[in-house]
Write a structure and sequence with these properties.
Xaa-Pro aminopeptidase, six-stranded mixed sheet, alpha/beta, Creatin/AminoP/Spt16_N, elongated, 16% strand
Length: 200
């Protein structure tokens, strides 16, 4: 895993916690199951999945704790430092084994005051069923992370614009190359795909 820095992850955590506190149903925790949600929240990218910038993870964000469930053997010392994993304050990430998410969620739900917010579109049933009784569960189709990450800040907008310009240049280079290569008659789609990837 490696991290990208736009808005700091601490700023994002504070923003999501504010949404939790302002919610009239008063959730005490937010469970993130979609891989892109955790990646966005912590400004992290990984390579657990081929051709995909995400990593296997779950996050349980409470008002005063952060539990990140990952394959802990893949976490570097630099990443631990980035996540302030060596402390226990409200902006310190407690790293937990990916396989222990059910057990830890059950422990959290057993707390008398626990009320867990989930986005139903991405939470699997194995975790959903743990959150009982019904009074301890708050649902919405999407988590507040998913809706918040849809709104880009200035830095993210600039990065998107630059990416679109680079891609447009690559497509123009491909079209120019195709004008010369197609008449020769030995062009394949694979060669064209390799060429445009090289341009990008």
């Amino acid at each position: 895993m490696f991290h990208l820095s736009e808005r700091t992850w601490q700023m994002k955590v504070d923003q999501i916690r504010s949404l939790m506190m302002s919610n009239p149903y008063k959730p005490t925790a937010l469970l993130l199951s979609a891989l892109d949600e955790t990646a966005w929240l912590f400004n992290l990218r990984g390579n657990d999945i081929p051709y995909n910038p995400f990593f296997y993870s779950y996050t349980l964000l409470t008002l005063d704790e952060i539990w990140l469930f990952v394959h802990t053997n893949r976490v570097t010392e630099d990443l631990k430092k980035y996540l302030t994993a060596s402390c226990t304050g409200p902006l310190c990430v407690q790293l937990k084994s990916y396989g222990s998410v059910r057990e830890n969620l059950m422990t959290y739900v057993a707390r008398p005051e626990a009320k867990v917010w989930i986005g139903t579109e991405y939470t699997n049933y194995a975790l959903y069923e743990i959150i009982t009784p019904q009074e301890k569960l708050m649902t919405s189709p999407y988590s507040p992370v998913l809706t918040t990450k849809a709104v880009k800040d200035e830095t993210e907008e600039q990065i998107l614009r630059e990416a679109h310009v680079r891609d447009a240049v690559a497509v123009i280079q491909l079209l120019m190359w195709l004008e010369k290569a197609v008449p020769q008659g030995n062009l394949t789609e694979l060669r064209a795909a390799e060429y445009v990837n090289k341009c990008r």
